[in-house]
Amino acid sequence: ERKAALDGAKGPGATSDGHKVPLLANVGGPADVDAAVEAGAEGVGLFRTEFLFLDDSTKAPSEEKQVTAYRQVLEAFPEGRVVVRVLDAGADKPLDFLTPGDEPNPALGVRGLRTLLDHPEVLRGQLTALAKAADGLPVYLEVMAPMVADRADAKAFAAACREAGLEAKCGVMVEVPSAALRARSVLQEVEFLSLGTNDLAQYTFAADRQVGAVSRLQDPWQPALLDLVALATEAASAEGKSCGVCGEAAADPLLACVLTGLGVTSLSMGAASIPYVRATLAKHTLAQCERAASAARAADSAHDSRIAAQAVLSGE
Ligand code: PEP
Ligand code: MG
């Protein structure tokens, strides 16, 4: 019955007083697209492209294979928004032909955009395939880079996008605390930010996302993580640019309200969470979300932060 009620309410994401927060889907491959459409996603906020590279660990996939895969996702959201993330190899997603095998700390080594800047032909191949895939489609394509640490990274990525002739908005993920701290400087080079809260938590708390023993520190309700989110959204707002969230944090309906209160402009999550986030957001005003965000940030632990936000949102 609950599921039926959720299915009944599709439509765009918004607070009860009409503040729009587009609800987008995280997609790990063409197989996830149907679920995203079914859930009423307003587009794709994170298209992870790693799946294309898993079949052959010795070289990049052909342009033809890439164009076909990108086009499949782009066509599923005609006139919607699709944010494609270029390859995020290394650390928890190693690839034999790209990832150095001898790093003592792979999560702190050559991964994400760092890998692509060391292998510009792979980045160029992806961007060119994306340009071809989007050609002639009405879709609103955005492209972003993972693991961007500073303005120089953002500048290098933006230059690669331009050189590939890509007619798309170019943005970066905020996954490294330095990028959140200096978000305004990063935004001089690109048009949007997307917070990857999984890695941002990992790097903020020096807590490996793959190590269960430190999972307490991976909790996205940690007030320090919320502070970094606020730095990024404030910078984006000052620059007149958007700042979404595409990490797991966006899938928690209560936290989605807090993120909205912090000024996040879109929420991207696994399709299964979209109906729940949509329903919860629709019950609260933007002002309530803002009060919940302040209460959450005033707490001293993830646990207390959640309790404080819940109290505000349930009208206590
Ligand atoms: C993140 O780090 O929050 C993120 C969305 O990227 P991934 O989980 O693919 O590293
Ligand atoms: Mg990440």
TrEMBL record:
<keyword id="KW-0598">Phosphotransferase system</keyword>
<feature type="binding site">
    <location>
        <position position="175"/>
    </location>
    <ligand>
        <name>Mg(2+)</name>
    </ligand>
</feature>
<keyword id="KW-0670">Pyruvate</keyword>
<dbReference type="GO" id="GO:0008965">
    <property type="term" value="F:phosphoenolpyruvate-protein phosphotransferase activity"/>
</dbReference>
<feature type="binding site">
    <location>
        <begin position="198"/>
        <end position="199"/>
    </location>
    <ligand>
        <name>phosphoenolpyruvate</name>
    </ligand>
</feature>
<dbReference type="GO" id="GO:0009401">
    <property type="term" value="P:phosphoenolpyruvate-dependent sugar phosphotransferase system"/>
</dbReference>
<feature type="region of interest" description="Disordered">
    <location>
        <begin position="1"/>
        <end position="21"/>
    </location>
</feature>
<feature type="binding site">
    <location>
        <position position="48"/>
    </location>
    <ligand>
        <name>phosphoenolpyruvate</name>
    </ligand>
</feature>
<keyword id="KW-0460">Magnesium</keyword>
<keyword id="KW-0762">Sugar transport</keyword>
<comment type="similarity">
    <text>Belongs to the PEP-utilizing enzyme family.</text>
</comment>
<keyword id="KW-0963">Cytoplasm</keyword>
<comment type="function">
    <text>General (non sugar-specific) component of the phosphoenolpyruvate-dependent sugar phosphotransferase system (sugar PTS). This major carbohydrate active-transport system catalyzes the phosphorylation of incoming sugar substrates concomitantly with their translocation across the cell membrane. Enzyme I transfers the phosphoryl group from phosphoenolpyruvate (PEP) to the phosphoryl carrier protein (HPr).</text>
</comment>
<dbReference type="GO" id="GO:0016301">
    <property type="term" value="F:kinase activity"/>
</dbReference>
<keyword id="KW-0479">Metal-binding</keyword>
<keyword id="KW-0418">Kinase</keyword>
<feature type="domain" description="PEP-utilising enzyme C-terminal">
    <location>
        <begin position="12"/>
        <end position="284"/>
    </location>
</feature>
<dbReference type="GO" id="GO:0046872">
    <property type="term" value="F:metal ion binding"/>
</dbReference>
<feature type="binding site">
    <location>
        <position position="85"/>
    </location>
    <ligand>
        <name>phosphoenolpyruvate</name>
    </ligand>
</feature>
<feature type="active site" description="Proton donor">
    <location>
        <position position="246"/>
    </location>
</feature>
<feature type="binding site">
    <location>
        <position position="199"/>
    </location>
    <ligand>
        <name>Mg(2+)</name>
    </ligand>
</feature>
<keyword id="KW-0813">Transport</keyword>
<feature type="binding site">
    <location>
        <position position="209"/>
    </location>
    <ligand>
        <name>phosphoenolpyruvate</name>
    </ligand>
</feature>
<keyword id="KW-0808">Transferase</keyword>
<protein>
    <recommendedName>
        <fullName>Phosphoenolpyruvate-protein phosphotransferase</fullName>
        <ecNumber>2.7.3.9</ecNumber>
    </recommendedName>
</protein>
<dbReference type="GO" id="GO:0005737">
    <property type="term" value="C:cytoplasm"/>
</dbReference>
